[in-house]
Amino acid sequence: MILFLYMQKHLENSNWYEILEIFIIYHDNNRLNRDTKKMDLLKQNSSLRKLCTMNASDQDDYVRRGQILLSGSGSKFEIGEKLGSGAFGQVYQSRYTKKNGTEEGIVAVKLVKYEEGEDADVQREREILNLCAPVENVITLKKAFTFILDEQHFMLFAFEKYGLSLESMLKDRIINVPNTLKVGYIVLGIFEHLQKLGIVFRDLHPGQLLFCSDLVHMKLTDFGMAQQAKRNKNTTKEANTYVYAFDAASVAFLLVCCRTDAKVMDKPELTTSAFVNELRGVKDTLLQNNMMFAYEFVDELTRQMRGNLSYAKLQRALSAGLVTFDPDDKFILTDSVPSMLA
């Protein structure tokens, strides 16, 4: 009422119904702003709860050794030792038994906690893993299901069990040039297939690459950050390239991790200019660390930042860095026990 009288006094040339209409519009806009702010606050609180929930590395173990987890279909997982944890989940060794009693052996179980009604991220990860099932050198998903434990909601991902990570191979050491090239070549091949599926990985680092026990095969794991990219038919626009450019550029940083003391990769912003600037820095690093074998690869990658990405061309540029490199050769191993990459 005070506001109405104030408006009537200062809008002397307006009729009372015009003043009333202005008042109603003001009131509606004010209510809309309050509701919008309220919704924004709710979204922020939801995101904060989600972030806190998914920060798995700072939380107590979700399960204990020997605990049995059952799927809705009757499959049984007996929890073993904890293998590790990250921001989005905890990983345990587990014995997998089907409902009919068939032993599926030892698997790696990833447990991801989420708030009730906020399972979009874990469901997205499951969908992407199912899409990636035919892709060579990607860890195989054997089973996934949700369950409730102590009033907490979880998604269980059961993967084939692999061995040491590249991160563990690089601890306090570097690997030789042929092994570095082979690591990069394999990852480029994986990303080429993901691009065809419309998937960007977005989280490449040495801890995401696992080796089988005899170090013959290396596979990519953990698609918690992966997304299905929006396709763009206009190939001349910048947006078409940088959707996938992060994955391609991250391979250059991975090569640096293999041959220098730097074991954590920088992650540039998702703009073409930022990628190009970061790659200039990578070239300086190559010069400083006698890594000229990767120079042509980074040059080709830089050229492709403003055009269409071609992982086949990137593979050719990378393999050209060493005349004797053959992608079909096995990894070169040390004579130590256990064997490591040389």
Automatic annotation (TrEMBL):
Keywords: ATP-binding, Nucleotide-binding. ATP binds at K110. One of its GO terms (molecular function) is ATP binding. Residues 77-342 form the Protein kinase domain. Pfam families: Pkinase (PF00069). InterPro entries: Kinase-like_dom_sf, Prot_kinase_dom, Protein_kinase_ATP_BS. Gene3D superfamilies: Transferase(Phosphotransferase) domain 1. It comes from the Eukaryota. This is Protein kinase domain-containing protein. It comes from Caenorhabditis nigoni.
